[in-house]
TrEMBL record:
One of its GO terms (biological process) is arachidonate secretion. Residues 134-456 form the Teneurin-like YD-shell domain. It comes from the Bacteria. Pfam families: TEN_YD-shell. GO terms for molecular function: phospholipase A2 activity. Keywords: Repeat. The keyword Repeat applies. This is Teneurin-like YD-shell domain-containing protein. The keyword Repeat applies.
C-alpha cells in the first residue's frame, strides 16, 4: 500500500510521498520529499532522516544522514563536464580526482599521496602507482581479457603475481599465482565443476541439477535435496528450514543450530545461536542498505555514498574505518583503499575486484587471504589489519559466517543465498525474452538462490539482485549473454563509451567478433546455434541499443568537447 500527499509550501511540482516501511514485524511511515525535477531531497522514517542537496545542473553536492545519536555527511564537487572533482567524507578529508584528455581517471590526490594511473590499454587501466611507490600492472589479450596482474613495491619486490588463461567461451581455466596454481573446469552450461586449488585450500568438485541447484559437493559429502521452490533442505549432514517467503530460518548441524529472523520485507534482522542467544542484530535504511549491525552489545553504523560503503562508525559517531573507490565505479566493487585513523592501506584486487591483499604506503602486506572458488575465505594468520570486504558488494559477518550482499545474505560454503529472489528472476526472464526474442533461451540465473549462475570466476552480483559481468548493451545495462560472446560484448560496451563513437561500426564489429567465435567451432548443430544466437544479439543491439548508446556517449562527455 502507498499513500501520496501533496504538501503545501513546497516548491512548484514538489510532492511528499509517504509509504509504509517495515521495522521488525511492524510497519511505519516513511516520508520522501522531492524537488520540482523529481530529485529526492529528504526522507524521514522516524528513526533516521536524510537530506540531499544539488547544484543547478541537478548533480548531488551533499548528502547528510541523521542517525539519531549523531549525524554524518559527505559532499561532491564537479568539473564543468560533469565528472567528479572532489569528494569530502564525514571526517572532512577530501580526495581530488584528475582526468586525462580522454576523460579517463588520471589521479586521485590523498593526504597520504597520489594514486596515479600511468597508462591505459584502450579504456582499461594498465599501470597504477600508489603512494609510496607500489605499482600495479595489468596485461590484456586482444579480446581485452586480463591475462596478467602484478603488484610490486618501490624496490620491485613482488607483492602479487596472477596470470590467467581462458577457454574459447571466455571462462577462466587457470590462475597461476605466487602461492600456487588454480585450475578450473566447467560443465556444458559453464557452471564451475572443478577447482584444483593449491594448499592449504581444499579441492572442489560440484554437480548440479537442471535448475542450477548443487547436487554434490566434495567438501560437503552426502545427500543434497531441495523442495519444489529450489530451497535447499539438506546439504550433507546439515538441514535447513524456511519460512513461507523462502527465507532460511534455521540451520541444523547435529546439536548445533543457528536461527535467522526477518522483517516483513524479508531482510535479516536477527541471528541466534543454539542456546537462543542473540549473536547479531541488523537494521536497514528505506533503500534496503544495512544501517547498523550489533554484536556482543557493540553497534557498528554504516554510511554509503554513490560508490558503496564509505565508512564504519561506533555509537558515538567516531569513524573506525573508511573506504575509497574510483569515482562512479560499480557499487561496492574493486575498492581502492582502507583508512584507519591516519593510516592508509591499499587494496590489491583480482580480476573481479575481490580483495586479495592490503598493503601500506611502504608496500608491506598487512592483510592477505586465500579463497575457495565460491568465496569461502581463509585470512592469513600474519594479517595485522581487519578487512571484511569479500566478493563485489559483500561484507563478512563473523557472527554468522554469512556475507551481507545488499538485498540478501550469501553463504559461501553453499555458493547460494539464504533468501529467495523471485522478483529479480522474473524480471531477468522477461528482459531476456523480450530483448532477444528467444523464449526458449532462459538465463542461467533462473535459479532464485544460486550465486552468479554458479560461475563465480566470471560474474559478480554487487547488490544481491542482479548477476552480471562487465558487459551489457551499454554502461548501465547488464545482460547475461551466451558465454562464448562475453569478450565481444565487453568490447562492444567499450566501443560505445568511446567519444564520438559510430554506433553502426560498434555493432558491426560486435557482429564480426561473434561470428569469428562461431567460425572456430566444429561443424554441427552447436555451430549453427552459435550463428543463430549471434544474429539475435546483433539484432538486439541494432534495434534496441539506441538509448544505451546515447547514455554511453553522455558518460563519455562527447558533446562538451
Amino acid at each position: 500500500m502507498q499513500r501520496r500527499t501533496v504538501e503545501r509550501g513546497l516548491p512548484s511540482g514538489a510532492e511528499k510521498f509517504i509509504r509504509p516501511r517495515p521495522r521488525g514485524n511492524h510497519l511505519l511511515d516513511v516520508s520522501h520529499r522531492y524537488n520540482e525535477l523529481r530529485r529526492l531531497t529528504a526522507y524521514d522514517d522516524g528513526a533516521t532522516a536524510a537530506s540531499y542537496a544539488y547544484d543547478n545542473l541537478q548533480r548531488k553536492t551533499e548528502e547528510r544522514l541523521n542517525y539519531g545519536p549523531f549525524a554524518l555527511s559527505y559532499a561532491y564537487s564537479y568539473y564543468a563536464n560533469g565528472q567528479k572533482k572532489t569528494v569530502t567524507g564525514p571526517d572532512a578529508v577530501s580526495y581530488a580526482y584528475t582526468y586525462d584528455p580522454n576523460n579517463q581517471l588520471a589521479s586521485i590526490q590523498l593526504p597520504a599521496g597520489s594514486i596515479t594511473v600511468n597508462a591505459y590499454t584502450w579504456t582499461a587501466p594498465e599501470r597504477i602507482t600508489l603512494p609510496g611507490g607500489t605499482t600495479r600492472s595489468r596485461q590484456y589479450d586482444p579480446l581485452m581479457r586480463l591475462t596478467a596482474l602484478t603488484a610490486k613495491d618501490a624496490f620491485q619486490n613482488s607483492l602479487l603475481s596472477y596470470q590467467y588463461a581462458y577457454d574459447r567461451a571466455g571462462n577462466i581455466t587457470r590462475k597461476a599465482t605466487e602461492h600456487g596454481t588454480y585450475d578450473y573446469g566447467y560443465d556444458r552450461l559453464y557452471r564451475l565443476k572443478t577447482a584444483a586449488n593449491p594448499g592449504p585450500l581444499s579441492q572442489e568438485a560440484y554437480g548440479y541439477d537442471a535448475l542450477g541447484n548443487r547436487t554434490t559437493d566434495s567438501n560437503l559429502p552426502g545427500p543434497w535435496s531441495y523442495d519444489e521452490n529450489n530451497a535447499l533442505r539438506v546439504a550433507g549432514a546439515v538441514a535447513y528450514d524456511y519460512d513461507a517467503n523462502g527465507n532460511a530460518i534455521k540451520k541444523t548441524a547435529g546439536a548445533q543450530t543457528m536461527s535467522l529472523g526477518y522483517d516483513t520485507s524479508d531482510r535479516l534482522t536477527e541471528v541466534k545461536d543454539a542456546q537462543g542467544n542473540t549473536i547479531g542484530r541488523y537494521a536497514y535504511d528505506p533503500f534496503g542498505r544495512r544501517l547498523w549491525k550489533e554484536t556482543n552489545n557493540t553497534r557498528t553504523w554504516f554510511f554509503y555514498a554513490d560508490e558503496g560503503l564509505i565508512g564504519e562508525y561506533d555509537s558515538s559517531g567516531a569513524e573506525t574505518r573508511a573506504y575509497g573507490y574510483q569515482p562512479d565505479s560499480t557499487w561496492g566493487t574493486d575498492p581502492l583503499l582502507l583508512k584507519q585513523g591516519k593510516n592508509y592501506y591499499f587494496y590489491q584486487n583480482d580480476h573481479l575486484g575481490t580483495p586479495q591483499k592490503l598493503t601500506d604506503t611502504q608496500g608491506n602486506v598487512v592483510w592477505s587471504a586465500r579463497a575457495q572458488a565460491f568465496g569461502e575465505t581463509t585470512v592469513d594468520a600474519g594479517s595485522t589489519v581487519t578487512n571484511n570486504l569479500r566478493f563485489a558488494g559483500q561484507y563478512y559477518d563473523g557472527e554468522s559466517g554469512l556475507y551481507y550482499n545488499g538485498a540478501r545474505y550469501y553463504d559461501p560454503k553453499l555458493g547460494r543465498y539464504t533468501s529467495h529472489d523471485g522478483l529479480s528472476v522474473a524480471r531477468h526472464v522477461r528482459r531476456w525474452q523480450a530483448t532477444l526474442g528467444m523464449p526458449g533461451q532462459l538465463p542461467l540465473e533462473i535459479n532464485p538462490y544460486a550465486y552468479v549462475a554458479n560461475n563465480p570466476l566470471r560474474w559478480i552480483d554487487p547488490t544481491g539482485t542482479n548477476i552480471f559481468g562487465y558487459c551489457g548493451s551499454g554502461p548501465s545495462r547488464y545482460v547475461l549473454v551466451d558465454g562464448r560472446f562475453a569478450a565481444a560484448c565487453e568490447n562492444h560496451d567499450r566501443c560505445y563509451l568511446q567519444c564520438r563513437a559510430n554506433k553502426s561500426k560498434c555493432d558491426q564489429t560486435f557482429w564480426n567478433e561473434m561470428n569469428a567465435v562461431c567460425d572456430q567451432m566444429p561443424t554441427g548443430r552447436d555451430k549453427e546455434l552459435c550463428y543463430l544466437r549471434a544474429e539475435n544479439f546483433f539484432t538486439a543491439v541494432v534495434w534496441f541499443g539506441d538509448g544505451e548508446f546515447q547514455e554511453a556517449q553522455a558518460a563519455a562527455d562527447c558533446c562538451k568537447r
